[in-house]
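hi! just following up on the protien thing from before. the input was this:
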Amino acid sequence: MKMNGAEALIDTLLAAGVRVCFANPGTSEMQFVAALDGRDRMRAVLCLFEGVATGAADGYGRMAGTPAATLLHLGAGLGNGVANLHNARRARTPIVNVVGDHATYHLQYDAPLTSDIRGIAEPVSDWVRHSQLLEDFATDAAEAVAASTTYPGNVATLIAPADLAWSEGAQPAELPQMAEVERPPIERIAAAHDALQSGEDCAILLGGKALTGEALETAGRIAEATGVTLFCETFPARIERGGSRPVVQRLPYFAEAAMETLGRFGSVIIAGAEKPVAFFAYPGKPGVLIPDHVNSIGLSSPYEDVTYALKALAARLDTPAGTRDAARSEPAQGTSARGPLDPGNLAAVVARLIPENAIISDEAATGSLALFPATMTARAHDWLTLTGGAIGQGLPLAVGAAIACPDRKVICLQADGSAMYTPQALWTMAREELNITTLILNNSSYAILNVELSRIGAGSAGPQARALLDLSNPSIDWVSLAQGMGVPGQRATTVKELEAALKEAIDAPGPRLVEAILPGL
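and the predicted 3d structure came back as:
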């Protein structure tokens, strides 16, 4: 059946398994808005800022394992969403961006919203195409989905001219055949086996697909059989943890601590990750975090089948499937915190209250230093982190995760400074009645930057420097802000208040916000 280009594109996405579109459309996307109206299988979610749309698509893709679409308005709209597309690309999340453009014949006039959309898209996309012909429009969409779902996951951006969207005579296209996932060579598996049998202390650094499902379970069996220590990337896209799952330590954020940690081992085996590097350069300090005296073994890259690699390694070690000890099936839940409301006590409260099968969106910044280790033995949950370092991810990521997994509680652990980048996500939480509890860690500052100011060797901080990192003049009232967006909120200034407010929020359906007032740095 013939239809217009927008209808053919949406039907192509639906046929390829795309079921959600996070949208902030404009005039050039009105044909897509109309096409969505008649297609109930595609859930259209309005986001009041493009960074919320792209961040939500990231959260959805991390949890669903399939892409969501975004619908963005020209280069300016795409530009507003770039930061969270940067994070998504670092997370290797499957996303299909549909970015409207002026009609092909209108570009010659250089209208006010004309821009180099491809130039904006390419640094944060793995695949970009600017459609030119109606007969290729739906095929371009199918190839965008195929590109996004190529292992381990990619950001694909399709630039969609308005005249192709409204022109009649298009029809949907089928998804092209997918390539098989590449397997690492047997020589690397043999090298990892030899290191584990050498008698030296070894570590395995897990990343990407190695931190979930069968790959993680296999890594746990290897650790129990050999005594190897398991680490994850400092900022994993998604890690399954808690309950009876394998204990995986997080590689420290600060370079000195990471090098000291890895320097204790004779060999570090890297599975599903890149070789770890410092997040930033510091004067006189190395950038690569594995010291020169440590043997670095690349078992599998993020683009190779890490599940196969770990299973092959386990087979060489004669570690049969199903033999991992599940003694931690009844994890410790922690005790009620006492004393002042500080990051340590806050972490203890969170660890005790995390419900079974929760999803944690972590943009707690300095708060994560206490939160991640404190929750290692909490009830089973998934933990999502700020993969690319572009702040403003936590709230949108929670939106996408909640839509991907509506039967699971999502807890957003959110620093106050970075929350101000995308507070519009609260409105989408309320509109969509999402099952999200947001915990704002309010220390009225960019606390991590107070730490970095001294680490970078920038000298002592005078009043003007301190003012640039201070959020207390005026103080941000998160309870009022949340309520203005339609999300009920409470404020906690003591441990007792936090426990009561957080428990109430987690137990309640729909979105809730708790603001925890913490000491500043």
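Confidence is low (pLDDT under 50) at residues 328-332.
The first strand starts at residue 3 and ends at 4.
cheers
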